[in-house]
Amino acid sequence: MAHPAWDDIQPLALDSAPLPAYGTGSLADLLPTLVAHQEVDGFAPAIPELAPADRNCVFLIDGLGWEQLRAHPAEAPFLTSLLGSSRGGTGRPITAGFPATTATSLASVGTGLPPGAHGLPGYTVRNPDSGELMNQLRWKPWTDPHAWQPYPTIFQRAHEAGIHTAQVSSPTFEHTPLTKIALSGGTFRGRLSGEDRMDLAAEQLAAADRSLVYTYYAEVDGKGHRFGVDSDAWRGQLMYVDRLVQRLAEQLPPRSALYVTADHGMLDIPFDEASRIDFDEDWELRAGVALLGGEGRARHVYAVPGAEADVLTVWREVLGEQFWVAGRDEAIAAGWFGPRVDERVHGRIGDVVAAAHADVLITASQREPRESAMVGNHGSMTPAEQLVPLLEVRS
């Protein structure tokens, strides 16, 4: 069934998997649009609904999907009051990109590129050079960040064009590889409390006639993973971040635009055998598989050489009623990772890619005990995971 707010997403030939709105309304299109309006060379406004502003601030709330926000108006009265402002006053969301996961989405935001170009196409993916699984959020095992993602960030290009550029986030993130390749450029300002981040973001926004500021909050996602998106803990975080957004909005300097968005949504998956398929206990799914990557709702499956076709057949037979299951070339041709996939990225994508459309996970209780215990999950192309707000406040 089509989602009424998902106008820009076109059904794919492959089992009608919905394609993210790359090029017209995805996270990768946000910063290119903002800096195009700030007259940075080489960019065009990809999200046509957004109007120019001299000072732009992006506040990314990890894990706050469009559907979850709309379902909790009592906990988020200020954010709810902004729903009609989303995507330039159309009252519509944008899409995250595939997979809908933090490392992939933050790289899309910061580089202005879809996953197939920036090269972070999943939570864990195979490094073709070493043959090992690499966790792109924690950057383990180590690999050279700028070889893995060689493109400059939008922040770097804006800074070089004379725009005052700053990132305001937790000090923990200042020197991480993900920050270096996705969010670096200009000045990093570390602050522990959410209130301090909002105050400093407003100061940085006012620091020049043209400015680009990014700020971030993680714990909505953290509580969702641990307790679920309908838990008291998650609701408490939503109430807190609602106050943070209002605090920042009330301090905007003149000629500013604040955009509130997220890297993905989330949904809770029941703890039962029908909803959680354990790869480590399923001999059919394990047959011919050398490495299991990705995450529960967006799996990259790397086959033993020569077994690729058999693994694809089995995964389709076992999971086809609950997952969109594609071979690597099929997923690339269908545009799951964007309109292009760079050569260096090709081997990072699984021989088989499985994206859940039912409320189900492929866990790995022995290999991934921490991830397998999560209540809230994300990664796939369903509306609950894929749609994110683009709320707007102007001064």
UniProtKB/TrEMBL annotation:
Name a Pfam family for this protein.
Answer: Phosphodiest
This protein's superkingdom?
Bacteria
Q: Which SUPFAM superfamilies does the UniProt entry name for this protein?
A: Alkaline phosphatase-like (SSF53649)
What protein name applies here? Alkaline phosphatase family protein
Gene source species: Streptomyces flavofungini
Lineage, opening ranks: Bacteria, Bacillati, Actinomycetota, Actinomycetes, Kitasatosporales
